[in-house]
Inverse folding.
């Protein structure tokens, strides 16, 4: 079960990096996010008729919706303010330590010295990636705020998926609430700009929406069967994939500091995978 949860989380991290690259490369970031979330909700909607509604997890669904709304606004602001390779490591690197502490205190999940070391290495590595190309204070603030909200929804959804009848049941209703709720909110916020973005970017949005189902669906499955502190850190291997995407597809420069950060992340992931 531990090995399965670890592999699920690494796969989740890879898909997550692709989704964020699609949002970053879009012309209007909020419209791109509305396309991604709306597409994921439409794709998962048929499953709502075959899986039970997670009544016991309803408070966590509501809390997750609220936190995800703040998270996405912070994410969009961060991407509007700086390169993906500068802010993405900050937001993802700050989250595991906060999530690990919250999981231990609230969920009662265990954390060993080795797990703490692996989590610390992953976080240090992701922060090192951004250190040599520090974003502006404004971008840094948005990135750190994003990290806090990532930690918050990680712990909330870990609790919620354990209260639900199954991981699939919770995942389906999370995507429906987030996709139709936040997607519609962002689309209405942008108005005509969303319609223009949708005409030109609906295909990437649809693909990213499908990948969103993969990335967070795998993460929720993993949280149901494994401990949050280790798994939350493993998901941040998405930074390795994010750096590669930023370099090869977004044509961003990768300096020695970012390479060093990638090495630290890989080392931390290796420690966590050996547990």
């Amino acid at each position: 079960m531990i090995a399965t949860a670890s592999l699920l989380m690494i796969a989740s991290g890879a898909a997550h990096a692709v989704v964020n690259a699609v949002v970053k490369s879009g012309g209007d970031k909020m419209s791109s996010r509305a396309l991604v979330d709306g597409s994921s909700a439409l794709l998962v909607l048929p499953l709502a008729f075959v899986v039970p509604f997670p009544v016991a997890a309803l408070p966590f669904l509501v809390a997750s919706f609220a936190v995800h709304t703040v998270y996405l606004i912070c994410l969009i602001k961060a991407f509007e303010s700086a390169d993906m390779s500068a802010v993405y490591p900050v937001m993802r690197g700050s989250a595991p330590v906060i999530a690990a502490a919250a999981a231990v205190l609230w969920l009662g999940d265990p954390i060993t010295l080795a797990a703490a070391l692996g989590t610390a290495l992953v976080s240090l590595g992701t922060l090192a990636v951004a250190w040599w190309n520090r974003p502006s204070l404004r971008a840094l603030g948005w990135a750190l705020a994003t990290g806090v909200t990532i930690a918050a929804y990680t712990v909330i959804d870990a609790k919620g998926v354990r209260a639900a009848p199954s991981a699939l049941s919770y995942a389906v209703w999370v995507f429906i609430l987030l996709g139709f709720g936040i997607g519609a909110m962002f689309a209405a916020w942008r108005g005509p700009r969303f319609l223009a973005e949708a005409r030109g970017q609906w295909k990437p949005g649809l693909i990213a929406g499908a990948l969103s189902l993969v990335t967070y669906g795998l993460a929720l499955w993993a949280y149901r069967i494994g401990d949050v502190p280790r798994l939350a850190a493993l998901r941040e291997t998405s930074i390795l994939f994010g750096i590669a995407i930023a370099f090869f597809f977004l044509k961003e420069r990768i300096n020695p500091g970012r390479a060093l950060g990638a090495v630290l992340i890989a080392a931390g992931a290796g420690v966590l995978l050996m547990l």
